[in-house]
Amino acid sequence: MSSNSKNISLEEKLIKNLNSKLGVPINFQKERRLWTSIDSDKIVDICTKAYEMGFEHLSTISVTDWLEEGKHELVYHLWSYSYKLLLTIKTKIDRKNPNISSINSIWGANAETCERECHELFGVKFEGNPNLTPLFLEDWEGPPPFLKDFNWREYVKEEMYDQNNPREEVYFEVKK
Amino acid sequence: MTEINEQEIAGDFSMYFGPAHPGSGNFSIKVEMRGERVLKATADPGYLHRGFEKLMEYREPMQNAVLSDRVCVLEPLQWNLVHAEAVDYLMDYEVPERAKYIRVILAELSRIQSHFIWYAAMSLGTGFMTGFNIAIGYRDYILDVLNLITGGRVYPAGYICPGGVRKDLPEKAENKILELLPKIEYMRKFALKQNPAWLARFKEIGTLTKEEAIKFGAVGPILRGCGVESDVRRDDPYEIYDELEFDVPVMDEGDAYARFTVGMQEIEESMKIITQSIDRLPKGEVKTPNLKPIVQFQKAEGEIYIRNELSRGEGAFYMVATGQKTPYRVKIRGPSFTHMIPILEHLLTDVAYADVPAIYWSMYQCPADVDR
Asked: Which domains does chain B have, with CATH numbers?
């Protein structure tokens, strides 16, 4: 327990430090997990500052599609080898106009690859990323497949099966 | 690195390494060649994209536990564990102590058999068939024990599930695991010492510096082979790893040989973890009481980023729950994603074509967790 309480007090100090250096409120989720929510135009600035403070490992970039809200939430997970903490930076962008600056100036090809995935699966455009070619889906012409309003079950039925073909009728009888 | 002499150009051409290459896995690299030298390599993933992240949005946690095996064929139990931990946190489950120990024992056994496959694939790729045969043979001893415990040799079908593990250890399983250890140790020594000529093939090729490794997002044995002492089991402990004693092997060279040696040294640490866990294995339940995941997941709201140390390094699940039967969003971070795309492309710049297989397999690839 003593090491736990020691960790927590260290984290409190770090939260204060991060608050002042990054200039954004930092929240505590659980042990070794901190998060913050920022405006999308600040992303490069905040990530640069976080990198300089010791959050050197870009674990991954994720997108959550909040359909009802009309927003895409981009989530950047940064790990610090020195503090042994995970900082999650979240930012929301408009779903109809999903543009955000690339962070390839900090993490180079690593960030570019993560962004390629987000671009392919969610259609998010990363300004400044020269290589947004698809990673997984060859010759895909449909909408970004991981969007919440893309129903892949319907898409597969329409594109791949023929209702008039007696051998494929069964696919149209399956419940949704 | 020798300069390319313009006057000696034999011809520029590009070709594919994989996906039909034996052992390359479902993955290929497009290499642009000038004579015998590779000028540039471009990774071409996507042969194994199954859309797990989207599939999991349509399935309930217990179904997803079974699905999580398939993220990587070579280390399914560890992926089971990452998924189970993410759901445990969101559902606020108290996992019984015995289940935690069983989870750790199985995760470490899975790590060892995966490291054997690494040795096997490296041998196969560089023309040392004996190494391949013996490693796959010794891996089978471990698979027999996994079969006894989980009911599946390779895929445990969600044995490590939210709330604990599906079933308690069968009778005498502890003894069977302990009987494995001398065999594992024999295989480990064989891999590290038996064939110095083959091992020398990996020295001073595919060298990655410490700074590059961190910038490109290297994890696991690849990162530790570059001199960074980082292990999720120690830095961000989960289950019971903070109570166990084990070392984190590190080497400074950063070449293919260093990465492989770190991996083989890890097997020894995994054996220490298994021995300690079996010694301390408590009695009791192996599942959270009143486990009703479908009902309980509908009360779960929030999100979590769970990191685990898999065989290949940091693997993670980002899960968002919004009080529905199924998770709202799942993001899987596979360790090979950074190893196989940015790092491999970086390492395969201006190298001899003969070195490509050695560098390729030293990255401990798993195309399945690149594509997901």
From this structure: 6-365 (1.10.645.10)
Q: Which residues of B163-172 are buried (b: 16+ CB within 10 A; e: fewer)?
A: bbbbebbeee
* Domain annotation for chain A: domains and CATH numbers: 2-140 (3.30.460.80), 146-176 (no CATH)
Residues of B in contact with A60 (CB under 8 A): 316, 318, 331, 333, 337
The answer to whether residues B123 and B354 touch, using CB atoms and an 8 Å cutoff, is: no
* ipTM above 0.90 for this complex: no
CA proximity to B33, closest of B4, B57, B59:
B4
Residue B123 · residue B198 · CB < 8 Å:
yes
Nearest CA distance, A64 vs chain B (angstrom): 6
Q: Which two tokens stand for residue A37?
A: 């929510």
Q: Going by DSSP bridges, is the β-strand pair A85-94/A33-38 parallel, antiparallel, or unpaired?
A: parallel
Assign B130 to helix, strand or coil.
Answer: helix
Q: What is the pLDDT of residue B12?
A: 81
- Tell me the pLDDT tens digit for each residue of A88-119: 999 999 988 899 999 989 888 899 999 999 99
Q: For residue A101, what are the β-bridge partners?
A: A127
Angle at A55 between CA B242 and CA B223, to 5 degrees: 65
Q: Is the peptide bond before B19 cis (omega within 30 degrees of 0)?
A: yes
> Pairing between strand B329-333 and B28-34?
unpaired
- CA dist., res. B136 & res. B118, Å (int): 10
- Name the residue type at position B324: Q
Q: Which of residues 99-118 of A touch B (CB under 8 A)?
A: 107-110, 112-113
Task: Closest CB to A109: pick one of B89, B216, B236.
Answer: B216
Q: Which residue of A has its CA nearest to B339?
A: A110
Closest-CA residue of chain B to A118 = B331
pLDDT tens by residue, B229-252 = 889 998 888 888 988 989 999 998
Selecting from B214, B230, B316 the residue whose C-beta is nearest the C-beta of A60 gives: B316
Distance CA B114, CA B369 (A): 14
Alpha helix segments (H runs only) across chain B: 52-56, 61-69, 76-91, 97-125, 129-150, 173-193, 196-200, 210-215, 220-224, 232-235, 256-280, 293-297, 335-338, 344-347, 356-362, 367-371
Contacts of A108 (CB under 8 A, 6+ apart): B215, B216, B342
pLDDT value of position A2? 44
